[in-house]
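ok trying again, last paste got cut off:
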Amino acid sequence: MTESTSAPGLSAAPPPAIGLSGAARDLYRALWLHAKGVRPQMLGAAALLSGAQLMRLTMPWLAAQAINALQQGDMATAGRWIAYLIGIYLLSWLLHGPGRVLERNVGVRVRVRVRLADQLYARIAAAPLAWRDGRHSGELQHRVMQASRALSDFAQNQFDYLQSAFNFVGPLVALALLSRTSGAIAITGYVIISFIILRFDRTLMQLARAENDAERRYAAALLDFVGNAGTVIGLRLQAASRTLLGRRMDTVMAPLRRAHVGMHTGVRRGARTPARRAAQRPERAGRQSVGRSAAAAGARPRRAGGAGQFALAARRTDQRA
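nice, full thing came through this time. structure:
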């Protein structure tokens, strides 16, 4: 169905493919926007965590000095370097701990106080009826929960990204200071490896998008059956509904299997690949079984709570997929 009216920020067309740099930029822009009121805490957490990582970068050099002193038989000097090493380690944790607390406070603020989920619901509630038609409530609920939780988790796990960045840049700088030739070789190797990893990550992002789409379809069907459990039991549709849910769960697992074995190089969102068509054939068979059972029981498709609604909802969901 062609939709000419859409809510602000809720486009009817599938989102275009986005690169890793664009995704990171959008995430940090959204984090800065929704961290209003706790931005000093966010910057303070970044400063403390960065300081902790810088201190930890000195630990290999301190350990090397202690080993050199031990090889020379100077126990007093070795003990002093070991004491420095322990002190740096403890001091780094004194910075890391408060930084993590501030970081988690920012994540809580993003999800609870700023009410990202409430803002998303307000946009859905303000959307026109033409936009809601054809969109299952279970899919929208899944999107809202996933978006609010993802931004909150991103806010309170910045130390992972900082640690990776410092552990990547720090050894390169140290190696370049020791030997420019070795540093140049290491940087060249890192650039090549980074390019390969980014290509893999782009494919994994496409697989994750396909997995999220299939998981939303599963959540929509599950909400239909659980919300109308009385009708399912009354019309004896337990087996047919389990079959349909099983097929949709298999569709969710398909991108995961591809990501694990690396059997393909890219997935276009909504592309009808052979694996996807094979996964949809038995699902349609299960959905038709639900429709036939409802027709045999004399259910009216337009009746509230009727089993015909399950078949209609499933059909609309598959048409959008």
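cool. Confidence is low (pLDDT under 50) at residues 1-14, 263-315. The chain is about 80% helix and 0% strand.
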